[in-house]
């Protein structure tokens, strides 16, 4: 609840631990396949970024109970995309009540996630400056139709700075004019859901 009330967390390189899994992952010779799994500790605010050629299933056990974020590079018709996956809510009623809370937390902290990826995989981004123009697509996974959605946050260089987003035909596109501030506390229902989730 405090994470939602306060300003977005600031990225601190000293709190990031980077793990490379796979023989060729440490040397940025290719982009696809390449995945990132970012996990954090609520008590210390330490971050762990795992970079690998595949999404490590062991690390994602209990994904629906954690706030880990998974990202992967994909190529479509010669264009590279960074797809980010966030688990918002599951099939049970209690998780569905927390969907709005978790959706806004992920949206608020996404720039920090992208900063961690840029810093942790800096060798790749230093050698491939063109990747900063790749579009970031965010997949929010939820049993709720309202929050089970895909958003386009624009080029990586803008998304990492927390540029705003605007919905267009059910999707979201980057907006340079507005800041990405979650409109969460506008209703008593939202406040109740946040407090209820916190007490769980």
From TrEMBL:
InterPro entries to which the protein is assigned, alphabetical: Staygreen
Staygreen protein domain span: 10-159
Pfam families registered for this protein in UniProt: Staygreen
Family affiliation: Belongs to the staygreen family.
Protein name: Staygreen protein domain-containing protein
UniProt lineage: Eukaryota, Viridiplantae, Streptophyta, Embryophyta, Tracheophyta
């Amino acid at each position: 609840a405090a994470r939602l009330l306060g300003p977005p967390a600031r990225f601190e390189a000293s709190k990031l631990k980077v793990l490379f899994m796979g023989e060729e992952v440490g040397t940025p010779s290719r982009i696809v396949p390449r995945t990132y799994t970012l996990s954090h500790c609520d008590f210390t605010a330490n971050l762990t970024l795992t970079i690998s050629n595949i999404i490590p299933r062991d690390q994602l056990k209990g994904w629906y109970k954690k706030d880990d974020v998974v990202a992967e590079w994909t190529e479509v018709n010669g264009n590279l995309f960074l797809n980010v996956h966030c688990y918002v809510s599951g099939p049970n009623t209690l998780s569905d009540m927390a969907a709005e809370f978790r959706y806004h937390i992920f949206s608020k902290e996404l720039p920090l996630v992208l900063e961690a990826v840029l810093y942790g995989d800096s060798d790749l981004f230093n050698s491939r400056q063109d990747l900063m123009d790749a579009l970031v697509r965010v997949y929010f996974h939820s049993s709720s139709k309202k929050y089970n959605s895909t958003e386009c946050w624009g080029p990586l260089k803008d998304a990492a700075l927390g540029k705003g987003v605007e919905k267009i035909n059910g999707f979201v596109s980057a907006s340079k004019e507005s800041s990405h501030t979650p409109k969460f506390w506008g209703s008593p229902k939202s406040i109740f859901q946040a407090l209820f989730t916190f007490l769980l």
